[in-house]
């Protein structure tokens, strides 16, 4: 059972990671020209310790120095992105805040909001989201919003900018969103996982731990057996009864 949960945690968020890689690639190709590039000054003359590379700007989370043939140029990431001090030249050095933290590194440029987006780039809450419909979110690129939805069973967490378990999203009512609440009176303090049938689909099931419900799926070739509460070979489950 633990292996099934682990697989689900890895696979479902992995779908979101593919989407993020796609938009990061778009940024690298289409937005390099949008970065502000300032002329080199005397104060930057000794910055470049290597021929080509990136260097942080003290007190700033989204600015950096790009060195090209030992020539330093001050640049700023597009609004909503942070400079990644771990980026290796010539890879694009700006990333989403969910991937590049800014704690203790300084400030960011003023926001450049649009009618659809609070920043030019980023992952944000969607106006279509509701406590009982928590999977909606928006990806903003150049101030234009693309409406997205989290993988099945996950909700968008605006605090982290990621899809998460519904019970970890404060604005989400996980029971209403998933259509199931863990039964009352069950001993939630014993640390045991209890699984329940998902109506209409024998490959999904509800899993309860400490009173929190999650929607999970069985591995390929397996189906949920409500009698044992486990995923078993699908030939042993009568899916027609679902």
UniProtKB/TrEMBL annotation:
Residues 45-104, 114-174, 179-241 form the Chitin-binding type-2 domain. It comes from the Eukaryota. One of its GO terms (cellular component) is extracellular region. InterPro entries: Chitin-bd_dom (IPR002557), Chitin-bd_dom_sf (IPR036508), Chitin_bind-dev_reg (IPR051940). Keywords: Chitin-binding, Disulfide bond, Glycoprotein, Repeat, Signal. The keyword Signal applies. The keyword NADP does not apply. GO terms for molecular function: chitin binding. PANTHER family: CHITIN BINDING PERITROPHIN-A, CHITIN-BINDING TYPE-2 DOMAIN-CONTAINING PROTEIN-RELATED. This is Chitin-binding type-2 domain-containing protein.
